[in-house]
Design goal:
28% strand; Hydantoinase/oxoprolinase family protein; alpha+beta; Hydant_A_N; 9-stranded mixed beta sheet; 6-stranded mixed beta sheet; single chain; 30% helix; 37 strands
């Protein structure tokens, strides 16, 4: 019996499954509709479609944590902080989105924990972790009993300067365990041992908020599988389910992170080391930038309206997927998204009770996708899509074709704005990057994005609907550790002490995962004295001596100049300040080998009416029948099991040696 490694990515509309045969390297793919009410049902249904192979390992990308935050489903959450700091969430950063010109219109959103569920405990540490006032055991017991009486079962604890010394937080956890044993507790010194009280508080509370749901989901899934499995993390690594339940916040961008990594590997194999990745699903579109084979990492990310300072792949998400709903604003203009019909009831053409026109309905009406999905497994109701488009067109006073085209145009501009946020606004020229587009709906607007953004080309990998699930099988086990130590004169002894401690933590965690010889990657956050924010640079491995110190500072000057256009390398008036020291512990895995496409498979070319500038009979190509070097000139449509590529007039699609379809302007 063959032995396979399996990746399962649960999206808002479909659950994608990829299996790699460990002996032959053969890659198998399939999809099944997601089950939002219980994502584990879709997970098990997807595995069932693979038959009964011998399973070596399973890696899972999940949206359980993300969806709770995006949908603001946060209940029964309490906060314990230092006496006198009960309003840290209310004060936040005193900043207004989009600048202070927005002050008249912006309504401050509710805090993640309302003031009446915030409690304080006496005790105080200074910024070096030295005790100024002792921890008040009496107040801690009183607070724990108050939360128990109120029925608050998820609690975040963030004491002032606990990044420097976690002792008071750990004593609070002991009191909660004794007085309120039903409570699920998150400590800021475990979640994010880094300074900036507001961000650390919110990150800790997000962890506490999603912990009960993630624990329940993973326990349910483990029971149904009857075996262990791993979960994708936002930082581009994986971790076993038994470990990730203790830090569920690390999974908040689980699926999108896998997509960016999978696309980076596929593009790099084909010779494109720096690309933009676009993952178009049924509910949303996720965009990332890959430079020299590595997706950009940030600790300034947000999920919904919550800042999360954990390391995560820098991804911008917009509500522009196949299920995005077209609607008319009170001013009478056509809008698309961010609301989505999701998997249930789905678009009108699904015939499952949907009542609103979606992007998918517009594609179906224009003939750009076939009258079925997944090779015929999901038949589409073309008449229902047509009826919805015609009704919307009547309200707008436009022709149905113009209305459907307008829906797709708005969706394309929504996606292009997400790409600009990651490129133009960060000093990158979008015209320098090919776009790698994947996901079920990702390739559908490829030609329009080339025109809107001036892209050199768009690359569509094989089985684009399953790239995120494939990405799960390309990922190392990875944990991140950080320690704040703010100083203008970092002594070598202190650097050795902190890095040794962080590397020891990383090694212990990876040893539990079965890695006896982990790889450690060091980095540091530095800034010029007086600046408010830092620049992260990689720090060399090996001995920490004077040359090591000089190398890190030199890398900081280089990075600052690249980011902001200037540096104070030779100006003694501007000293360099060290802020955070970081270690990533990595357990390497064997990545799948990307096979070359040797010859075309079966599949005949057919014809059906498709509307681009006009409606006319258009060649429909089966992607499996296109061998290396094959060329398709628009207008045409290329179809496969999990996705479709409309090739507009004036564009050409070419197949490379790995089976990628590269689209460019004639």
């Amino acid at each position: 019996m063959r032995s396979v490694r399996i990746g399962v990515d649960t999206g808002g509309t479909f659950t994608d499954v990829v299996a790699v045969d460990e002996q032959t390297g053969e890659i198998l793919t399939t999809k099944t509709p997601s089950t939002p009410a219980n994502p584990a049902d879709g997970f098990m249904a997807g595995l069932g479609k693979l038959g009964e192979p011998e399973v070596a390992s399973i890696v899972h990308g999940t949206t359980v944590a993300t969806n709770r935050l995006l949908e603001d489903r946060i209940e029964s959450l309490g906060f314990i902080t230092t006496e006198g700091f009960e309003f840290v969430l209310e004060i936040a950063r005193q900043s207004v989105p989009d600048g202070y010109g927005n002050s008249y219109f912006w309504v401050k959103p509710p805090r993640i924990v309302p003031v009446h569920l915030v409690k304080t405990v006496g005790g105080r540490l200074d910024h070096l972790g030295e005790e100024v006032r002792p921890f008040s055991e009496e107040q801690a017991v009183e607070v724990a009993r108050w939360f128990r009486a109120k029925g608050i079962t998820a609690i975040g604890v963030c004491f002032l300067h606990s990044y420097a010394n976690p002792e008071h937080e750990r004593r609070m956890r002991e009191v909660l365990a004794r007085e309120h044993p039903e409570a699920v507790v998150s400590l800021s010194s475990d979640v994010l041992r880094e300074y900036r009280e507001y961000e650390r508080s919110v990150t800790t509370l997000v962890d506490a908020a999603v912990k009960p749901a993630m624990r329940g989901y993973l326990a349910n899934l483990s029971g149904r599988l009857g075996r262990s499995f791993s979960v994708m993390k936002s930082n581009g690594g994986v971790l076993s389910a038994r470990e990730v339940v203790n830090q569920p916040i690390t999974t908040v961008l689980s699926g999108p992170a896998a997509g960016a990594l999978g696309a980076a590997l596929l593009a790099g194999t084909a010779g494109h080391t720096s690309v933009i990745t676009l993952d178009g699903g049924g509910t949303s579109t996720d965009v990332a930038v890959v430079i020299d084979g590595e997706p950009s990492i940030t600790t300034e990310g947000t999920i919904g309206r919550y800042p999360c300072k954990i390391p995560m792949i820098d991804i911008v998400t917009v509500g522009a997927g196949g299920g995005s709903i077209a609607w008319i604003s009170p001013e009478g203009t056509l809008k698309v998204g961010p609301r989505s019909a999701g998997a249930d009831p789905g678009p009108l053409c699904y015939g499952k009770g949907g009542t609103e026109v979606t992007v998918t309905d517009a594609h179906v009406f224009l003939g750009r996708i076939p009258p079925h999905l997944l090779g015929g497994e999901i038949p589409l109701d073309v008449d229902a899509a047509r009826g919805g488009i015609e009704a919307l067109a009547d309200k707008l006073g436009l022709t149905p074709e113009r209305t459907a085209t307008g829906i797709l145009e708005i969706s394309a501009f929504n996606q292009s704005n997400a790409i600009r946020r990651l490129t133009v606004k960060r000093g990158l020229d979008v015209r320098d990057f090919p776009l790698v587009t994947f996901g079920g709906s990702g390739p559908l607007l490829a030609c329009r994005l080339i025109d809107i953004l001036g892209l050199p080309s768009v690359v569509v990998p094989r089985d684009p609907g399953n790239v995120s699930a494939f990405g799960l099988l390309t990922v190392d086990v990875k944990n991140d550790y950080v320690r704040t130590y703010v100083t203008r004169d970092l002594s070598l002894g202190k650097a050795v002490e902190i890095f040794h401690d962080l590397e020891h933590q990383a090694a212990e965690a990876l040893d539990r995962e079965g890695f006896s010889e982990p790889v450690h990657q060091r980095s540091a956050d530095l800034r010029y004295f007086g600046q408010a924010y830092e620049v992260r640079v990689p720090a060399p491995a090996g001995e920490i001596d004077e040359s090591w110190h000089e190398e890190v500072v030199s890398r900081f000057h280089d990075a600052h100049e690249k980011l902001y256009g200037y540096a104070y390398r030779d100006d003694p008036r501007h000293g360099v300040e060290w802020v955070n020291l970081r270690v990533s512990g990595i357990g390497p895995i064997n990545r799948p080998v990307i096979p070359r496409l040797d010859k075309p498979g079966p599949g005949a070319t057919s014809v059906r009416p498709v509307h681009f500038e006009e409606t006319r009979d258009t060649p429909i190509h089966q992607r499996a029948a296109l061998g290396p070097g094959a060329t398709v000139s628009g207008p045409a449509v290329i179809e496969e099991y999990g996705s479709t590529i409309p090739v507009h007039p004036g564009f050409t699609a070419k197949v490379d040696e790995y089976g990628n379809v590269e689209i460019s302007r004639d």
